[in-house]
């Protein structure tokens, strides 16, 4: 009998935890949205994932990709700048375009 009370107590603690953290409200809202959907989606699980994904913090992998993108943009800008400098240097050593056409 004591075992059942301990299990009920743990269950009740977990339920309160979910309630305090807002999980129950969020799940309820998403399930209500699914219920009220005039045309039920083929995959209820995909519907839940889509609607829950919008409310959750971003995936850490996405943040890593954003950082990588920012680094690549910086490298790209540096390479473009270096390319401009090299073209300017090269122009000093090449004859003007009109002289090339005259030949």
TrEMBL record:
Residues 62-89 form a coiled coil. One of its GO terms (molecular function) is transcription coactivator activity. The keyword Coiled coil applies. InterPro entries: AMY1. Keywords: Coiled coil, Nucleus. It comes from the Eukaryota. Its main location: nucleus. Belongs to the AMY1 family. It is found in: Nucleus. This is c-Myc-binding protein isoform X1. The keyword Coiled coil applies. GO terms for cellular component: nucleus.
């Amino acid at each position: 009998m004591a075992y059942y009370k301990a299990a009920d107590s743990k269950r009740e603690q977990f339920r309160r935890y979910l309630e305090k953290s807002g999980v129950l409200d969020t799940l309820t809202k998403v399930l209500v949205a699914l219920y009220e959907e005039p045309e039920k989606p083929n995959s209820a699980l995909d519907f839940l994932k889509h609607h829950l994904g919008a409310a959750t913090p971003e995936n850490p992998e996405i943040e890593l990709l954003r950082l990588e993108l920012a680094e690549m943009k910086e490298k790209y800008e540096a390479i473009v700048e270096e390319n401009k400098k090299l073209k300017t240097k090269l122009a000093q050593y090449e004859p003007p375009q009109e002289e090339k056409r005259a030949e």
